[in-house]
Design goal:
The protein is α/β, with parallel strands linked by helices. It contains six helices and five strands. Strands 2-1-3-4-5 form a five-stranded parallel β-sheet, sandwiched between helices. Helix 1 packs antiparallel against helix 6. 29% of the residues are buried.
């Protein structure tokens, strides 16, 4: 499969949830950069724009970060670079209430997603990767590669 030439910037605390996102997106041939949770995201995007480089197609931001104000980033992107989609992840919640999701969308997010559940990792990941692929308008989904990556990750975490 030829690379999709899509680029996602993840701003997520170090840990298993971020590794899952990174692994599953890379399994779909998406370029992923995992940025430090301390990043000044708006400043970084402005620098990328000033340098004439391609902006990320999507920002994946954990809402628990204290240094990045995710809803502010959503509003800023909506106004200043609407081509960049923002997906928020609440790494502390197992499910997102419809009112929470709607509020995030009203703030400019493309979606608000819950954390992955270890006992439903493969099914959660399949649903979420399809959501991201749809947002990026990528028509192909490599389920075999995704499952392979996730099973390796699940085995590894069981033994660590």
């Amino acid at each position: 499969m030829i690379g999709s030439s899509k680029f996602i910037l993840i701003v997520h605390p170090l840990g298993l949830q971020g590794l899952i996102w990174q692994s599953m997106l890379r399994s779909q041939h998406i370029s992923v950069i995992w940025e430090s949770p301390d990043v000044n995201l708006i400043d970084s995007i402005n620098r990328i724009k000033q340098a004439g480089c391609a902006l990320p197609d999507l920002l994946l931001i954990d809402t628990r970060l204290h240094t990045v104000r995710p809803y502010h980033v959503c509003r800023w992107c909506h106004q200043n670079c609407p081509e960049v989609k923002v997906v928020l992840v609440n790494g502390a919640q197992w499910e997102i209430l419809p009112a929470e999701q709607q509020w995030a969308i009203n703030q400019g997010a493309a979606d608000l997603l819950p954390r992955f559940q270890h006992d439903k990792l493969v099914s959660d990941a399949m649903v979420r990767v399809k959501q991201i692929l749809n947002l990026l308008e990528i028509p192909t989904f490599d389920s075999g590669k995704l499952i392979s990556v996730l099973l390796k990750m699940k085995r590894k975490t069981l033994y660590e």
